[in-house]
Design a protein that fits this description.
CATH class of the largest domain: Alpha Beta
Protein name: Alpha-L-glutamate ligase-related protein ATP-grasp domain-containing protein
Number of domains: 3
InterPro entries: RimK-rel_E_lig_ATP-grasp (IPR039523)
Number of strands: 14
Order of helices and strands: HHHHHHEEEHEEHHEHEEEEEEHEEH
Organism: Flagellimonas nanhaiensis
Length: 336
């Protein structure tokens, strides 16, 4: 399965072949053999990041089978996973315990819309424009962020504004009629982070772990940035990620795009040209404290927290019950 995903993805193959930071072919072959013997599996995952010259400790990174074992272990607590997996469940749970997250305004389930404890059913697109416009006016906001309840990687997310309302609802008509969505207030990003990229909310992915004894720790942290006009920062949507110095709360010297998008090394934001190394993340200490504290409310063994930084401090965009471990693995320089 892993080799098929690699071979059937021309962007990933092209990204590897064109990467100037890849190791010499002889070294690649040697390391593939070493990993195959050590991990007892074909190391197709090697071509996601380990092929880069700077990666020396190849045995410290999770293999495909090891990631699968972790995922199998963390989904055992269904009651906790069910809170995290559905964005509506998570938002409502956060409301109960006053956990900071974007304020939910309304939600939709198969073309039924729920707002202010009332349901409006089978609404057509023309009336939907009026319906949403009235809600924006009633809430005194001019934009909403819309997310599918159960999709990941930024898939299906979009922003509604008074200026683009009619056009965007027409564009998303089929998805809205057949899908389930959460509409929240748009997060106002910290001005220092806006200097790097202001078109997307750029989040910190923090991976927390709960031991069998109940001890909570943070294993890894990376910051993700959107590129171009994208409203999401996910690397799977064309953005990139950069590891964070866990002690200092500063960005490391370089980040990476996914191999699918060229796998290039990034030292400056492609749009703003802002130098990333050494950037001190506002409210970093408070962000660390927040995810540790919030894990007490949802003590799942592993959680990938997506933390946004506002002018007033951190807020949780969402929490992932089965986070992509490759991202955290690279951010930690190997989780093993």
């Amino acid at each position: 399965m892993a080799i098929l995903r690699f071979v059937e993805n021309p962007g990933r193959i092209k990204g590897y072949l064109n990467d100037p930071d890849k190791k010499p072919l002889f070294q690649v072959i040697k390391e593939l053999v070493v990993l195959a013997m050590y991990k007892k599996e074909m190391p197709y995952y090697y071509f996601l990041h380990l092929y880069k010259k700077e990666v020396k400790n190849i045995k410290d990174f999770l293999s495909t089978k090891e990631r699968a074992l972790v995922r199998k272990d963390i989904v055992k607590k269904y009651e906790l996973v069910s809170i995290l997996h559905n964005k509506l469940s998570f938002a409502l749970y956060c409301e109960i315990y006053n956990l900071k997250t974007p304020e939910p305004i309304l939600y939709s389930l198969s073309n039924n819309y729920y707002y202010n404890k009332k349901v409006t059913t089978n609404i057509n697109n023309r009336d939907l424009v009026i319906y949403i416009r009235d809600i924006l006016k009633n809430e005194s906001v001019d934009e909403l962020f819309v997310r599918p309840l159960s999709l990941f990687g930024g898939t299906g997310c979009f922003k509604l504004t008074l200026d683009n309302l009619e056009a965007t609802l027409e564009e998303q008509r089929e998805s809205l009629q057949n899908g389930n969505y959460l509409f929240t207030k748009v997060v106002k990003q910290h001005p220092e982070i806006n200097k790097i990229q202001e078109k997307s909310v750029n989040t910190i992915r923090m991976l927390t772990h709960v031991t069998d004894e109940g001890k909570i720790s943070m294993l890894s942290a990376v910051m993700r940035f959107g590129v171009g006009d994208s409203v999401v920062d996910n690397s799977s949507a064309g953005g990139f990620y950069i590891p964070i110095n866990l002690k200092e709360g500063t960005l490391m010297s370089k980040g990476w795009a996914k191999t699918d998008f060229g796998g290039e090394r990034i030292t400056h934001h492609p749009d703003s040209k802002f130098k990333l190394e050494g950037f001190k993340i506002p409210f970093y200490k408070e962000s660390c404290e927040m995810v540790i504290e919030y894990t007490k409310y949802i003590p799942n063994k592993l959680i990938g927290w997506d933390v946004a930084i506002t002018p007033d401090g951190p807020t949780i965009i969402e929490a992932n019950d089965s986070p992509y471990l490759g991202l955290s693995d690279i951010g930690a320089g190997g989780l093993l």
